[in-house]
Amino acid sequence: MLSFDEGDSGEKIMDSAALLKKIDQLPRLPKAVSELLEAVNNDKSTIKEISTKVSQDPLMSARVLRLANSSHYSRNREVGTIDEAVVRLGMQTLRTLVIASAVIGAVPKAESINLADFWGATFEVALYSQELAKNTMIPTDEAFTCGILHSIGDLLIASAEPHVAKLIAEAVAAGADKQDTEVKLLDFDAASIGALLAQSWRFTDKLAAGIANQYQPKGAKPYSELAGLMYMAKTLFHSWDDIEDDGITSWLSQQAVNAGLKMDMSGLAAKLMKVKGCGLEMGQQLA
What we know:
16 helices; mainly alpha; 0% strand
């Protein structure tokens, strides 16, 4: 079981017992999606085998085709078959798409959340995470997957406790700290319940730690690079438009320091600019 690290104050971020009580309430992956995840994670699986499994799930098929024909992946020619879509997307993208679709399908809808906006923001952070990872030693597929799952706890809270989710949103809008408010009202925070869900879905402890420690990555013991990446990607998403273009590289460098990351800044701003907005479109395609 994942252990949640101590924060800078030396006090536990939360009572883990409160989290354990939530295990039975967490959504489970459908069997078909679990089998597809196993297939895309198996290096011996062929494109044809993956295509066949995707074709067996009408909703997944539709999402794969929509994403393959989105502007981010389009090659000026629309694809009309799953085989073509799988080849265009590639195994890594397909793997992350399966994960995203699994999350979208497994988590109950929350009336208070606009899913297109939620997944748009989630994919935007995931794409930033993937691009930032290229300038570190962090595997890009891990970075993207962690980005896809990083805010799943917020969706779970909004689904299970809509009234409390509204109070949290109002408090944060008024300037309160998100994590402190969540712990005060729920005895756990969204990141920790999201990490617990990732573990229950058999993702690695490393990825779960990245989700759990995203609020305070430098306070995690041991330090989690994925948590630092989530922290930086989220900051970039929320603050990008407030940064002057000629100061973006300096700003990115400072954010890497704040997140505890060692990162090569060479060409990073230009690379991030190329993916800016693509996640928002992907969220609209898949929600």
